[in-house]
Give the backbone structure.
Amino acid sequence: MENKSPPSQLVEVSENILERCGGVPLAILTIGSLLSNKKGRAHTLEYWSKVQKSISSGLDNNHDDVKNMRRILSVSYSNLPPHLKTCLLHLSLYPEDYKIATEQLIWKWVGEGFVKKEQGKSLYEVGGDYLDELINKSLVQPAKFDNANQVCSCHVHDMVRDLIISLSSDENFLTRIGDPQPEYLPSKIRRLSIQTCIPEVVNQLSTMGLTNVRSLTVSSPAFSLLPTLSGFPVLRVLDLTFCMQVDNNNWKDICSLFHLRYLSLKGTSITRIPKEIANLQFLQVLDISSCTEIEEELPSTFIQLTQLLLFHMADSITCAVPRWMCSMSFLFSLSIKLETMGEEDLQVLGNIPSLSELYIQVQKPTQGRDKRLVIDNAYPFRCLKRFSVKGDTMELKFARGAMQSLQTLLLVLDNVHDTFSQFGDLVFGLENISLLEHIVVEFPFDEEDSDEETQMLRNVVQKEVEMNQNKPILTFTQTDAVD
């Protein structure tokens, strides 16, 4: 019988490595992730011995835990492939203990050009793989999971953050103005994150050359102290999320930034989108959600944004789906708010060729409608994997052949009683979505909804899910009613 126990030399090396970890959980996890990547006994001893020497060199015998930990993390970083090093350094722009939304993070990586194309995968999916690798190596930690058990926010351990801030400064990768304040500012800044509104600090920018800045992230209080945006001519990434000082007067400068790939105006005070938006020919990501109510429809020139991958405008524009939207051949993720939902809206959305994620918010039900809109194979939705629909009533029903790529479905009913009153039932046809893996049904505590109606909703949905041959995971979420 083959001896499965490890050779004594390997045991000795592993014990020495563990001793250097000093019992610190992060150190053990990080070094364990690094060592586990090398498969095959033939090379294991040689590789582990090399790692032991790397984390031991330069350390004294005092076993200073902080020094040891820093050395272990440095070795783990140095063993990353170049694309993961870049993505990890990018995390230095976030404040301490900040919960990073993974969707926003991955799209930023796409806008920065960090994510490389892979056969058969979207850029967003490849970026998600990068994040998973960093999590598996214990360099990034999950903070929150969604109902499909996907990481929806993450954070960086303080010691990892200290390391990447130091490395980022050494390599002039990213300059942070805020806490901790860098000892000096480089003459040429490539990526800039402004997290303070202290005038003396921000005023240093006026003495610096900003013409090489490729990425700019600004916290809300700091925007009013910022030089004009036209002073950043080669920007690829502009993140002004929740900067309420940003309004329509800033559009002229923004639309002159011809190199932009990523633009977030989420939660700003803009109330229109100018026709000059078409100047941004390379734009891949545009987020104008949660803005002050935008008064005008999308300009017809919007169709010229042929590289657009993500467009989020929920809670900002209430509109019908423009017919030309089905010509946006690369659009991957869309969130939209409709006044009412009709067959023509679904026809246009269903024919967007690359659409993988769709989030629809319906402002009000269609008057006089007593039969649900039926989604079948006449509405192709060829690539749609994630679908969320929210409305006062649930006006959709899925027929056989509907959404044949769909994996995750979120149905949000603001009023169960009104849904039942309008259609006389709570039947949605969930058994007909053949590849469905996760379904979440969300509804509020509402005095109008009787216990009988909410129980009926649970029973009907449960039965439909049990009839689905793919056996999706079902989650009910009940929220506080909103006036």
